[in-house]
Amino acid sequence: MGDEQKRSPTPGLQALIDMLSAQAARVRELDKAADNSLHEHGDIQQYTHALHSKAELLSELSDLARPYLTDLPAEQQERIAQQLDAFSRNAQQALEVDSIFFMRQLLYPEDYQEGQENDLERFISSLGF
User: Fold this and answer.
1) In this predicted model, what pLDDT tens digit does every residue of 33-92 receive, in sequence order?
2) Is 77 helix (H, G, I), strand (E, B) or coil?
3) Lower CB count within 10 Å: N or C terminus of the chain?
4) pTM for the whole thing?
5) d(Cα 129, Cα 33) in Å, to the nearest integer?
6) What is the 3-state secondary structure (H, E, C) of 42-75?
């Protein structure tokens, strides 16, 4: 009965979910490219480049999502904006200190295990009700 009561996201929220899902997929691609560069090719420069790209993408996430929030209820706008701002702030900090370790760990909690959702993916899942 629980699934029967699930509501579908509004069109505005669905557009936000779709955009964030595309960004989350790109983050996964960049992490995979970074790992492949390091572990398969020993290429530190490409590893660093991929992680910088990931951090840059995340640092812009809040601004990228802002137009999608306008049609959402105010309390939902605020909750979503706060979380996306946190993702962006963390990425900006990683870029400011130029820490590859920090960039690699963005979105991954300490207890993360391969195959689990990262923090952005978990947040996106929470938006779908």
Assistant:
1) 999 999 999 899 999 999 999 999 999 999 999 999 998 999 999 999 999 999 999 999
2) helix
3) N
4) 0.89
5) 31
6) CCHHHHHHHHHHHHHHHHCHHHHHHHHHCCCCHH
CB-based contacts of 28, cutoff 8 Å, min separation 6: 118
Q: Which residue has the tokens 């962006």?
A: 88
CA atoms within 13 A on the CB side of 48: 6
Residue 68, both tokens:
């999608």
Count helices and strands in the chain by DSSP H and E runs: 6, 0
Separation CA 72–CA 79 (nearest Å): 11
Q: Tell me phi and psi for residue 70, to 5 degrees.
A: -60, -30
Q: Which amino acid, one-letter code, is at 77?
A: Q
